[in-house]
Amino acid sequence: MPTPLDNALKSRNAFLAFSGLVTGVALWAIWGGDMFPAEADPRGDPSTWPREEMRRWLASRNLHPAETDSREELLERIRANLRIPRQ
């Protein structure tokens, strides 16, 4: 006498849907979240950073650097928003 589980497994569509769900959960568990992690913040004196690193530093803090900002303007905004190091 077939059980309800046997009847459900006879349906190929239900089996494939369940297999896809298990595969998706497994992939998310393995690769979930930081598959492509963000680059680390630049270190050292901000005046030595390239312009793109300055823009990335400001953008990661939601300070919205403009494309037309000069290097000096970016450096001024970075220095104004740097945290004071604790000793």
Automatic annotation (TrEMBL):
It comes from Lasiosphaeria ovina. Keywords: Membrane, Transmembrane, Transmembrane helix. The chain crosses the membrane at residues 12-31. This is STE24 endopeptidase. It comes from the Eukaryota.
